[in-house]
Each structure stands twice: as C-alpha cells, then as structure tokens.
Amino acid sequence: MTDTDTHPDDYAFATLAVRSGQRRFGEMEHAEPIFTTSSFVFANAAQAAARFAGTEEGNIYSRFTNPTVRTFQERLAALEGAQACVATASGMSAILSVCLALLKAGEHVLASRSVFGSTTALFDNYLTRFGIQVSHVPLHDLDAWEAAIRPNTRFLFAETPSNPLTELVDLQALAALAHRHDCLLVVDNCFCTPALMRPLELGADIVVHSATKYLDGQGRCVGGAVLGSEALVGKEVFGFLRTAGPTMSPFNAWVFLKGLETLKLRMRAHSESALQLAQWLEQQPGVLRVHYPGLPSHPQHALAARQQRHFGGILAFEVDGGREAAWRVIDATRLLSITANLGDAKTTITHPATTTHGRLKPEQREQQGIREGLIRIAVGLEDIADIQADLARGLRV
Prior knowledge:
Elements: H1 13-19, H2 45-53, H3 67-80, E1 84-88, H4 91-102, E2 108-112, H5 117-126, E3 133-137, H6 142-148, E4 153-159, H7 171-180, E5 184-188, H8 193-196, E6 206-210, E7 224-228, H9 230-244, H10 250-261, H11 263-281, E8 287-291, H12 301-307, E9 314-319, H13 322-332, E10 337-338, E11 348-350, H14 362-368, E12 374-378, H15 384-395
Parallel strand pairs: 2-3, 2-4, 4-5, 5-6, 10-11
Antiparallel strand pairs: 1-7, 6-7, 8-9, 9-12, 11-12
Helix pairs in contact: 1-3, 1-10, 3-10, 4-9, 13-15
C-alpha cells in the first residue's frame, strides 16, 4: 500500500523529504519499518525463478534488495531529481562502485585536484593498479579541464564545494565541456546535499553522496549513495553492487530516512551560522584568510550565489604560525568536537594536513592549498555565540 496516490513530482522538496518512498504494510504503521532480514521467502519455485531471472520485481536477498534500503533510495532519488539511486555501505564505496561499474583497463579518469584525501588515494593508489589512468586539474579552471581530456577519458570527477577550501566549479559549463567530448560528469554533492544544489539539473550525469554526513545529520551511521539515470545507475552501478556487495544496512538506511526529513531545515541553519562565523573570523587577529563561499572575499562568491540555494555549513581558515598555531587553536576549544567527520549537529574542528589529507604526499597537499596553518570547521547547530567564544580561546593566545 503506498503512502499517497499523488505523484511525488507534485510535491515540494520538504514534503518529498518526509513522505516519498514509503509503503505501508499490513500493520498500517506510520513510521517506516526496519526490515532486519537477510533473505525473503517466495510463494513458489516459479516465483523464485522469476525474481532471480529479473522478469518479476521483488525482494530476493538483502545484499541488493531490502524494503528499508529501497525507501531510502527512492526518497533520496526524489530529492536529487534522479531516475535511480543505489545505496552503499559508505561514501567511498559509492565512489568505488561508480568506478568499477563504469571503467575498464586503459580508460582515463580526469579528476579535480581538490577532492577529498581518500578519493585522491583511491584514484591514484588503487585504480591505477588495474590499468586505469588518472590525472588531476585545478577545480575552477575550465581550460585546464578541457586541455587534459584524452581520447580515452571516460568521466570527469568533481567535488564542489571542495574539501576543505570550498572551491567551486561552474557545473553547467563543466557538464557542457564533458558532453562535448563524450565524457560523463560525476559530482560529489556531499557538502551541499540536494537541499542546496541539484547537480543533475545543472547537467551532471551521476551524483555521489557520503550519507554519513549531512544526510544523516547527527553522526550516527556510515553510508553512501549513487544517483543518476536508470541506464547508468539503475543498471550498471546496481549490477556491481548486486555482485560485489558494498551494501547499506537496513538499520543505517532507516536512520538516514529520519535524517532526510529535516534536511532542508538543517542545511539552512548550518549555512546561516557558517556565514556568521566566517564573517567573525575575518575580523580576528592572527587569521590570515577565511575560505567560505558566502563571503564576498571568496573568488567564486558570485558562482556560489547562482549555483547554490545557500552557501553551506563548511568553512576553513588559515592562521599565522603554521601547524603549531593551528593545533593551539584546536586544542584550546572546549565545546567543539575534535574529529574529522562533518555534517553533524555538533560543530567539528580538524587540521586537514594531518587528518583528512594526511595520507597525501606533501607536494599534493601543497598543490591543493592544504597548508599547515589551515583549520576546517563544520558548523553545527549550537548557538553561534558559543561557537565563537570557544574559538576565541585559541585565537587570542
């Protein structure tokens, strides 16, 4: 039994975030149930054969078909405006699933230089072992993207805003460039979520998420997702997940469903507080530069205002004095959580050069602008005055 007879396209984002994807079962439950079962029973041998052959839709095995996971997939697809969604065990397994589903030896991936450290490590240290070529270009430089495309380039991979410097790329222009060269555009939408930006509407072919971050919103579970067309995601990426099994658990899917219900409200609140904090940090002694798209000083402020609904909850700032000064600021905090995760209701603070990007070579960090004095903050939902007071302890030493 469906939750509503009205087509989801008739609803606004906030309504889709609460209602889409749900099916009520015999108990007429109001909240979505968690199906903690590894397998499903068939009515007869013929139905089992039809399910395995793919001629009849239905549940088979929770590695690739589970009602709770399906509800999460359908809800997130509705929010992103996607035909299909495949939920995965983590954000990195979402990226891996895209790569292994769509790439083969001899093909080339062109990625932004400013992507998450683990993404760089996956591309450079592991994909290359299987004969896949990888190269990197500055995120915002469209001429560099075009010059680096090769005849064997399969897809372009971008993360916008980037982690941790919040650099942006014009997604419409990058998508047009990719398609001129018969390439796909894959976009990591972790920082914005569909509440702030929908890359598919801007021309991207595939969107990936770390559901661990803002989709959850409270730092409770690890998960990921891949979204796009039925042909690319519903067939190719799903086929990889069905076979290889980087599967999201039903419990985690249920937690993410609850997170999606408040996504729009939370992203607006994160953005408002992050802007206030960024403006405050620009006035503090010892702060050399603040990286936040909502500031007029950000080189792509106008693009962010055009491409995103709000400016997001992530900012970074550089302090005078390198690592020693950055660690002093971090260690002086009492309220903020010293952890590399982000997207939490609790504000988190980290030193990217020794945490999220610590596995990169020094020259790679330098190319990405990850300097020793850089601090990243994921602004939570606490009162902004308390966040500022906590940071002031280390900034005024």
